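#lab-general

N.A. 3:47 PM
ok so I finally got the sequence cleaned up, no stray characters, all 351 residues accounted for. can someone with queue access submit it? mine expired

B.Y. 3:52 PM
send it over

N.A. 3:53 PM
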Amino acid sequence: METFVYKTHAMRIRFQRGCRSRVAEEADLLGLEKVMVLSTPEQENQAAEISDALGYRSAGVLAVARMHTPTDVTERAVDSLSRAGADGTVSIGGGSTIGLGKAIALRTNIPQIAIPTTYAGSEMTSILGQTKDGVKSTLRDARVIPACVLYDVECTLTLPSAASSNSGLNAIAHAVEGLYSQDRNPISKLQCIDAVRTLVDALPVVARKPDDIEARQKAQYGAFLCGLALGQSGMALHHKLCHVLGGAFDLPHAETHAVVLPYAAEFNADAEGLEPIRQLFGDAGIGAGFWEFARLLGAPSSLAEIGMPEDGIERAADLAVASPYWNPRSFDRSDMLILIRAAFDGARPAN
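B.Y. 4:20 PM
back already:
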């Protein structure tokens, strides 16, 4: 029997269609009296619905969340919560909004409820990524873990097919890295394998039939497992590259993960722990398998397509080797130049 460390955190997780309507009940269980609802500007209507459901407990809606959690946005949000006298938050949205809720919790230590509307999985981790002056850094801190997560499949029904596919590929990337991370354990490995298989089954159906409740529920469950596994495991090359690219060039978060996944997976294709994924794609290879799967979903095919400037490749390679994350395969700047160039061009990875 292998030795391992398994960490758990006190969280209340509810999987139930329509459970967003019970947010006031969850706030009561946490002893919250005045709750601010967080969202992006685009999801302000959904936030208003949650504010209505909170009733007299609502401190209003703060629709200011942005990609990559800029620290200046967080600081202004903390000031707004203080002036409103809020003692908790509800984050409804994807990684941007949940990231803001986490960043506020880090600074104030107030409880947060998360209602995810994408498949990012961030709600299940103690990881927070923040951006300042074009540099994205990450930390782990138990204070940023939501006290409660409400998985309501109805909140995902308005998510466009493209966003569903991209956030689902983002989630898969968490599970792939979880399989070979330094601190993986038997439980997290099972979660990762089940997560990838579940999402590979569900995402094509969601892409074809966005209103398919059963497929949406499967995708939501798979994303939950991916986030749970990421919360137990460390990050490696894939996440380092995505943090570099997102912070330096303000690239869209989920789309960046979707583009990078095949190339980082192929770079680490021989890592111990990836045998179930190799079996999933057979002779095609891991990188080409994920590349073809992303094409099937209609995900972006290159970094160029999502807005990265070609003259940023050199800078990205420099940042990737500065303070690198642990990775099962060592790499240097020349390796990163090759990988980033391939991702920029959208070339099919060769195994």
